């Protein structure tokens, strides 16, 4: 039956409509239109079930397929590992798990320990649990609060939502666990809404974090969790001086610095990790998406040896990290991640991300001359956003429905882009781009040209 259905697209569509619950979709729309079914991918192109080709400028929709589709070498590596040893619980080790942990930490000076899980949300949950357990073991339970930033997103579980700054993602899912405290965002483009200065905004924004720590009490704050670049909250690249001041504040008050690299990790910004663009040294780093480019489920919570040592206590039967991730023991994840990392190195994709990213951001900036609806272009490497506004002078956000229309127009023309979606009330107005690290100038020129055409259609 499954073989027959390969030649019966309508049967697949109907099965999807009857049985699949899609993420982030109001399914009422499928009363009048069919869901789009993606059936094949090669490089940075995908084909839907109707045979239409699309240039994918968002790496699988959620910024994941960093090395592109159709990588038989990754599939072969995973197949070979699974036949030999498919799975064992994380209480034991595997060859792929040990090898990838070693390779990964070689790319992260100062970081030494890798805890495996299978999603970005789960990796961040692990980090939050580590912070809470450290508070109980070493601070009498007091230093348990976790700070997070307005507009940042750290996952979809209840605790991750509690520690996330996207109000529309959090709506209707409370009440949330206590101990998560918000700090202000660092979007310089909207500094006027915060009362921020025109000069030295980066340091000023970081100092707002210090104000929160002092208000809450430094002896109660255990960690600060930030994305290196705010992703789904608007592609916010921190301003000059911000990250250095943030690290200074964390060290001053003995606050663990947890950097969420689920989106930026593994080459997206032109370095292995986004934080490496700013010269800071985190205590905890979490990652997922690009770790295996979507070829297998894997996430990692990586710590310093200092953090790891806080759980080494032979005298306390409850002193070790009492956590489990069932599928953190699946060998497919680290096997795929090893081959993914090899491809990035052998094909020099970090440099390509930096070079092509600079070209693409130049192209987006060029669109601003003829499209007054673009208020600002932001990005680093092959990760970019264009914030759309109704008025450049007032910076009033563009109508969210029109922003989504731009995405739809691009899709009609065979280019898949994204936009901020059900994240921050009133500010879902940023077009989002995260093409694969293999992208060429021709690919990116086509994306930019298509966006320009779509903007003309929607905004005139």
Automatic annotation (TrEMBL):
<dbReference type="InterPro" id="IPR015424">
    <property type="entry name" value="PyrdxlP-dep_Trfase"/>
</dbReference>
<dbReference type="InterPro" id="IPR005814">
    <property type="entry name" value="Aminotrans_3"/>
</dbReference>
<keyword id="KW-0032">Aminotransferase</keyword>
<protein>
    <submittedName>
        <fullName>Adenosylmethionine-8-amino-7-oxononanoate aminotransferase</fullName>
        <ecNumber>2.6.1.77</ecNumber>
    </submittedName>
</protein>
<dbReference type="InterPro" id="IPR015421">
    <property type="entry name" value="PyrdxlP-dep_Trfase_major"/>
</dbReference>
<dbReference type="Pfam" id="PF00202">
    <property type="entry name" value="Aminotran_3"/>
</dbReference>
<keyword id="KW-0663">Pyridoxal phosphate</keyword>
<comment type="similarity">
    <text>Belongs to the class-III pyridoxal-phosphate-dependent aminotransferase family.</text>
</comment>
<dbReference type="GO" id="GO:0031299">
    <property type="term" value="F:taurine-pyruvate aminotransferase activity"/>
</dbReference>
<dbReference type="GO" id="GO:0030170">
    <property type="term" value="F:pyridoxal phosphate binding"/>
</dbReference>
<keyword id="KW-0808">Transferase</keyword>
<dbReference type="InterPro" id="IPR015422">
    <property type="entry name" value="PyrdxlP-dep_Trfase_small"/>
</dbReference>
<dbReference type="InterPro" id="IPR049704">
    <property type="entry name" value="Aminotrans_3_PPA_site"/>
</dbReference>
């Amino acid at each position: 039956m499954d073989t027959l259905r390969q030649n019966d697209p309508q049967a697949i569509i109907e099965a999807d409509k009857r049985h699949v619950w899609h993420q982030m979709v109001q399914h009422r729309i499928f009363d009048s239109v069919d869901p789009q079914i993606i059936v094949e991918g090669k490089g940075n192109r995908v084909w839907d079930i109707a045979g239409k080709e699309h240039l994918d400028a968002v790496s699988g929709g959620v910024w994941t397929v960093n090395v592109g589709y159709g990588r038989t070498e990754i599939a072969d590596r995973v197949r070979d590992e699974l036949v030999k040893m498919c799975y064992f619980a994380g209480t034991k080790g595997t060859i792929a798990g040990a090898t990838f942990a070693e390779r990964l930490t070689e790319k992260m000076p100062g970081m030494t320990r890798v805890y495996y899980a299978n999603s970005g949300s789960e990796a961040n949950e692990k980090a939050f649990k580590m912070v809470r357990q450290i508070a109980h073991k070493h601070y009498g339970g007091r230093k348990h609060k976790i700070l997070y930033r307005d507009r940042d997103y750290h996952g979809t579980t209840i605790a991750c939502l509690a520690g996330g700054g996207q109000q529309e993602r959090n709506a209707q899912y409370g009440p949330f666990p206590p101990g998560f405290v918000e700090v202000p965002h660092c979007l310089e483009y909207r500094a006027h809404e915060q009362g921020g200065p025109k000069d030295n905004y980066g340091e000023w924004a970081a100092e707002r974090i210090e104000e929160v720590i002092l208000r809450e009490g430094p002896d109660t704050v255990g960690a600060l969790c930030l994305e290196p670049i705010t992703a789904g909250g608007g592609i916010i690249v921190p301003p000059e001086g911000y990250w250095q001041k943030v690290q200074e504040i964390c060290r001053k008050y003995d606050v663990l610095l947890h950097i969420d690299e689920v989106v930026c990790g593994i080459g997206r910004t032109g370095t292995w990790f986004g934080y490496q663009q700013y010269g800071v040294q985190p205590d905890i780093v979490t990652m997922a998406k690009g770790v295996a480019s979507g070829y297998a489920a894997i996430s990692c919570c990586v710590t310093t040896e200092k953090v790891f040592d806080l759980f080494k206590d032979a005298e306390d039967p409850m002193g070790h990290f009492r956590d489990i991730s069932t599928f953190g023991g699946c060998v497919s994840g680290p096997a795929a991640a090893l081959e993914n990392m090899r491809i990035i190195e052998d094909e020099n994709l970090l440099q390509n991300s930096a070079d092509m990213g600079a070209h693409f951001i130049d192209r987006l900036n060029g669109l601003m001359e003829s499209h007054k609806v673009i208020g600002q272009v932001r990005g680093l490497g092959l990760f970019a956003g264009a914030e759309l506004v109704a008025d450049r002078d007032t910076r009033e956000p563009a109508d969210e429905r029109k922003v989504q229309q731009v995405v739809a127009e691009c899709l009609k023309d065979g280019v898949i882009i994204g936009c901020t979606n059900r994240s921050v009330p009133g500010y879902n107005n940023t077009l989002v781009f995260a093409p694969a690290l293999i992208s060429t100038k021709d690919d990116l020129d086509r994306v930019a040209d298509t966006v320009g055409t779509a903007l003309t259609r929607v905004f005139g």
